[in-house]
Design the sequence.
């Protein structure tokens, strides 16, 4: 089964920027000794970066949302 792309444009850029910010926050939380916060931020940031890289979001697919421009 092929995965249909459903993340594109500004949505993809926002996910990439948000993912990088969350991973940076995770690094800061590790340095501050807040392991639970670091884990949550790293998990969320990795998920957003995965969405941006693969152009696929499972939640978007479940909700029928598609931000890719089809020409």
Sequence:
């Amino acid at each position: 089964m092929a995965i249909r792309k459903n993340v594109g444009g500004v949505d993809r850029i926002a996910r990439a920027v948000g993912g990088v910010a969350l991973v940076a926050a995770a690094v800061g939380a590790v340095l501050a000794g807040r392991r639970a916060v670091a884990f949550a931020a790293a998990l969320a940031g990795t998920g957003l970066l995965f969405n941006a890289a693969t152009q696929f979001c499972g939640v978007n697919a479940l909700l029928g949302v598609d931000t890719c421009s089809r020409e």
Remarks:
- The two ends are 23 Å apart (CA to CA).
- The chain has one domain: 9-61.
- Residues 9-61 form one domain.
- Residues 19 and 41 are 9 Å apart (CA to CA).
